[in-house]
Amino acid sequence: MPSTSIRLGVNVDHVATIRQARGTVYPDPVEAGCVALAAGAASITVHLREDRRHIQDRDVAELVRMHRARINLEMAVTPAMLALACRLKPAFVCLVPEKREELTTEGGLDVAAQLDPVRLACQRLAKAGIAVALFIDADVRQLKAARASGAPHLEIHTGRYADTRGAAQADELRRIAAFAKSAHKAGFEVHAGHGLTTANVAPIARIREVIELNIGHSIVARSLFVGLPAAVAEMRRAIDDGRSR
Ligand SMILES: CC(=O)[C@@H](O)[C@H](O)COP(=O)(O)O
Ligand SMILES: NCC(=O)COP(=O)(O)O
């Protein structure tokens, strides 16, 4: 039976984006993580990109040292990132696609096209005691591949849903809802995220099979005006309202 509650993971990448813009030591994404957890976040997500454009190795190490059980590290499937994850041992890793030139993640991981490396990565991370999610598009071909990979969790990419409007958005929502059902039936724990805001989160939160949402950019942006605890609380309310409708 799908869960009635839904966890909020707060992504603090864009706190680090502001810091890196000036090469200062502030604002600190580690401090932001602590504040977000105190404000009701269930976990903290950080994407350690290969180009280190925002989050740095030290941020991940510090967050893991302080809150290991609640840290979700997003990373590319590369030997260097796998070695780093196995050394730092966050509780969760989400394997994501990465392109140097993209402004943000543009789609899901093509698990079907790289099943062997993804399967090996899942095995290696599981051996290190890390629970793995695959960040994928709502696409049955990817679901089949994900089943063969051995990953226990999936995070559905909601970027296209967030970027479209009207009939196209309704279509994307239907696709995500149907995919979440199939993924849950196949035994995966189902998460979702990317591009979600207080204005668009409710229909995604209403999908019973989704039990975790990872949200960052809109929360960090909103925190400029109301502060991080209030921005996390606003998102929590929007999710709970959506879930209960
Ligand atoms: C994988 C994903 O959906 C995002 O969480 C990702 O972290 C976005 O990367 P940026 O934070 O660099 O936009
Ligand atoms: N995996 C999605 C995530 O961590 C946050 O994405 P966004 O809200 O910053 O677009």
Automatic annotation (TrEMBL):
Pfam families: PdxJ (PF03740)
Residues the record lists as binding 3-amino-2-oxopropyl phosphate: 11, 22, 195, 216-217
Subcellular location: Cytoplasm
Chain positions of site Transition state stabilizer: 155
UniProt entry keywords in alphabetical sequence: Cytoplasm, Pyridoxine biosynthesis, Transferase
GO terms of biological process kind: pyridoxine biosynthetic process
GO cellular component assignments: cytosol
Any GO MF annotation of the entry: pyridoxine 5'-phosphate synthase activity
Family: Belongs to the PNP synthase family.
PANTHER family assigned: PYRIDOXINE 5'-PHOSPHATE SYNTHASE
HAMAP family: PdxJ
Function: Catalyzes the complicated ring closure reaction between the two acyclic compounds 1-deoxy-D-xylulose-5-phosphate (DXP) and 3-amino-2-oxopropyl phosphate (1-amino-acetone-3-phosphate or AAP) to form pyridoxine 5'-phosphate (PNP) and inorganic phosphate.
Subunit-level organization: Homooctamer; tetramer of dimers.
Protein name: Pyridoxine 5'-phosphate synthase
Organism encoding this protein: Solimonas terrae
Lineage: Bacteria, Pseudomonadati, Pseudomonadota, Gammaproteobacteria, Nevskiales
